[in-house]
Amino acid sequence: KKPLISIKNGKEAQLKPIIINGIIDSVSIQYGGYEYYSVPDLIVSDSSGSGSGVELKSIISNGKITAVTVINPGIGYSDTSTTIQVKSKFWEKGTNTRIYIKYFQYY
Questions:
Q1: Cα–Cα distance for residue pair 38/36, rounded to 1 Å
Q2: Residue 46 region, left (φ>0) first, then alpha (ψ -120 to 50), else beta?
Q3: What is the DSSP letter of 91?
Q4: Which residue, among 17, 15, 18, 74, has the nearest Cα to 40 in the 3D structure?
Q5: Global confidence as pTM
Q6: Measuring CA to CA, how many Å separate 99 from each of 32, 56, 72, 89?
Q7: Which of 16, 36, 87, 93 is least surrounded, with the fewest CB atoms within 10 Å of its CB?
Q8: What Å distances lie between residue 31 and 15, 34, 76, CA to CA?
Q9: Percentages (nearest 5) of helix, strand, coil residues in the chain
Q10: Measured between alpha carbons, how far is 47 from 28 in angstroms, rounded to an integer?
């Protein structure tokens, strides 16, 4: 019988930037998601084109994003046009994507 393989890769986290005077002061976790076993990339987009330079790092625990640290707040961000996309790392060198294999042998 063939083994059952499932790949656990983070899903559905929702983050909201808290912007004060054009800088990202903090990040509100709207939903921590599930199945995060490696730190995802946080991609900040400002559709107005004026924001730049932010650097964020997420912290995961029990498969969820539990906190986001602002390493560099950047400048020029707008609270009406700035979003954060959570992008899981999948099959990239050095990541910790978990693969579960269940194998049942019958006699």
A1: 6
A2: beta
A3: S
A4: 15
A5: 0.75
A6: 21, 27, 33, 13
A7: 93
A8: 7, 9, 26
A9: 0, 60, 40
A10: 19
Largest CA distance in the chain: 68
* Spatial contact of 6 and 97, defined as CB atoms under 8 Å apart: no
Among 83, 34, 24, 28, smallest CA distance to 54 is for 24
Strands 52-61 and 4-8: unpaired
Q: In this structure, how many other beta carbons lie within 10 angstroms of the beta carbon of residue 29? A: 16
Residue type, 95: T
**pLDDT tens column, 37-65:** 888 999 999 998 899 999 999 999 999 99
Give which of 81, 80, 98 is closest to 89, Cα–Cα. Answer: 98
Residues present in the chain in total = 107
